[in-house]
Every structure is written in C-alpha cells, then in structure tokens.
Amino acid sequence: MNVKYFNKIDQIQGLSEKEKTNLRTVTQRFPFRANEYYLGLINWEDPNDPIRNIIIPSPDEIDNWGNIDASNEKKYTPVHGIEHKYPDTAILLISRVCGSFCRFCFRKRLFYSSNREVATDVTEGLEYIKNHPEINNVLLTGGECFILPTPKIENIISQLRDIPHVKIIRMGSKMVAFNPIRFLEDPSVFEMINKYSTADKKIYIMAHFNHPRELTEEALEVLHRFRKAGAEICNQTPLIKSVNDKIEVLVELFNKLSFAGIPPYYVFQCRPTLGNHAYSVPIETGYGLFSEAITKVSGLSNRARYVMSHASGKVEVIGMDDEKIYMKYHRAANPDDYNKIMIFSRNPEAKWLDDYILDKVEVA
Q: What is the pLDDT of residues 153-186, one digit of tens each?
C-alpha cells in the first residue's frame, strides 16, 4: 500500500479545530510533515502520548531558546553538501526531507525552503572524499537518505565503494520507525545492501527509535531483513521530554532493541536548537535516568553512551557525584582534546556544555 503523507496541520484528523488553530503559528515557523502509518501509532485519547509528542507540534516551540545551528555545523562544511569535523569521518547531506519531521530535530533548518545545505548532486562531495584519504567512514544523511529512490541511493553508494579508503558507509535513518512500508514494498533496497555490504566493508544502518512503541511488527521485520542482507544496525536516540525521559521507557527501549539484535549506540542530550526548549531535559536529570536505566538491563543492552554533539566534539557524560559532574571528549574537532576529562560543579539547570564551561576544571 502507498502510505499517505501530510504537510499541513489542518489535515490531521486526530486534532480538534482549536488545536489546529493554536498550532498554525508553529508550523509557519517550523515545517510539519507526517504520514498515516506513523500517525496511526498515536493514542489520540492521551494528550501526553509519546508518539504524538514526537511528531505533533507544541505551542511551546515558539520559545526563542536555542540556535538554529546549535552545533555550528556550518563551520565544518568545506564544500557544498559535506561536513568534515573529525579526520576519519565525512557526512554527506543528500536529502532535505524526512518520512516525518521530529519536532526536536537538530537539523530542522534543512526543511526551510530557503536552505541550500543539501547537495542533490553529490559530485563535489565525492571528489572531496576522494582527495582526503584519511576519510574511511562516510555517513549518508540529511534529512532522510531512504526518502530517496533506491536507484539514486545505490548510485551514491556505488561511487563511494569505488573509493578505496572508504571502508564504512553509514546510513542515518528514522524511516524504519516512520514508515517501514517503504522498505517492505521495495525489496530492491535489501538487494542493494546485500551487494555493497561485504565481509570487509560493512554498511551500517544508524536507526533512530526514540520509544519502544515505534518497534512495531513491521519495523522489526524491516530490521530483520536489513540484517539478513548483511547490514549492521545500531540505534541512537536523543533523550526527549515527555517521550523517553522515564527509566522504565529507556529500559524497555534498550531491551526491545537488544532482543532484536540492535545495539543501543548513543543517547544524546537534546541539542539546544531553536524551538527545542519544550523537549529538552537538564543534563544531570537525563544522565541520572540513563545511568539508572542501564543498571536494569543486560550487558548486551547497556552499550549506549550518553553524549552531547557539541560544536567542539562529542562530549560524553561519564559520571556524577554529589558535587561534581564528569565528562570527556569521546570525539573532538581539536585532536588535542581527545579523551580530555572535564570536571564541573553540579548545575541541575544546565542543558548544554556551555552552561558549565565557565567553571571548567581540566584534568589531563
């Protein structure tokens, strides 16, 4: 079946006319997109339904807290459509559309009609990768890479496979959660994975399940077919207020993923992107929930790290006591910062590294 998409809040039958009126101002500022499969997961009788909170706008998005490019990705854009922040990794932005739009998306700027960061022609980006032999890992994302037709995706992947130093291709995707029907109706996508994910050069699907209810029978079948085709799959999710900011929800999510053979990878602090205040949980609250949750699951389920994708690098929260919180650079834009430990006085209101930075104590 073809899954129907909606780009206007007025098309959503589960909302009252009053709710639609209140949300029009929000959708004029931040675009809205959803589809009938994903909307069908919502319990419309529950105003705090977590799936609803992922996809349906909140009036609080009008708050001016945050920056439209919270991690300063523009700084690491050497040519059109590519980001190169860490020596061995490049990001190709190949799409400016998703199966639906998460309200807390950190790249929501891509969905503005005026945005030109995405490269519909990746020739320049591929040439850049060819000329940088230190790059062994390329992430295809956007937007959603699987929103593109499979032949167009294959064209990009085949060219990457012709670059000898590119060993890993990663595909950042929430489409398995948003619309697994896209894959079930297109078996050629699994044939493509089987062709290019080889014994010595794997394709990784970086899945994006935020809540265990997204792991439907259809989604699990798609994940199974990807693995059968030879892909490796990991899951990453931000910690989001009123979506997964409960210990029992994180435990269920980690368990269901591991039962399906999908390792939890990163749990992200919600980026301070413009409009995201309604979805952000303080760092210390989030880390407390995360660290408690991983004590309640098996070692196969608790491999995730709690991190911030800061402009300066991926900052991992590694511990907390009554007075201090401890972090380190898991990845760093400046090589001198790798594995640097940072110790801060506790700040229960902090939502980003910058909220601590003035009190920083560095330990080699």
A: 999 999 999 999 999 999 999 999 999 999 999 9
Q: Locate 2 and state its tokens.
A: 């073809």
| Cβ proximity of 129 and 135 under 8 Å | yes
Rounded to whole angstroms, the Cα distance separating 53 from 102 reads 9
Contact 58, 31 (CB under 8 A): no
Nearest-CA neighbor of 192 among 260, 145, 257? 145
Domains present along the chain, CATH in parentheses: 5-363 (3.20.20.70)
CB neighbours of 10 closer than 8 A, spacing ≥ 6?
A: 20, 24
Residues 263 and 235 sit within 8 Å (Cβ to Cβ)? yes
Q: Decide: 70 and 106 in contact? Cβ < 8 Å.
A: yes
Among 349, 331, 316, 246, which Cα is nearest to 288's? Answer: 246
Name the percent of the chain in helix, strand, coil, to the closest 5.
35, 20, 40
Find, among 224, 218, 209, 221, the residue nearest to 255 by Cα.
209
Identify the CA nearest to 145 among candidates 170, 162, 121: 170
CA separation, residue 134 to residues 91, 144, 203, 332 (Å): 14, 26, 18, 16
This model's pTM is above 0.85: yes
* Residue 236: strand pairing partners: 266
Closest by Cα among 74, 69, 159 to 121: 159
**Sheet with strand 137-141: strands edge to edge:** 82-86, 89-93, 137-141, 168-173, 203-207, 232-239, 264-269, 305-310, 313-320, 324-332, 341-345, 361-363
Rounded-to-10 torsion of CA 153, 36, 222, 118: 20
pLDDT digits (tens, 9 = 90+) for 68-116: 999 999 999 999 999 999 999 999 999 999 999 999 999 999 999 889 9
Phi, psi of 343 (to 5 degrees): -120, 125
DSSP state of 169: E
CA atoms within 13 A on the CB side of 276: 26
Listed residue (209, 205, 260, 206) closest to 231, CA to CA:
205
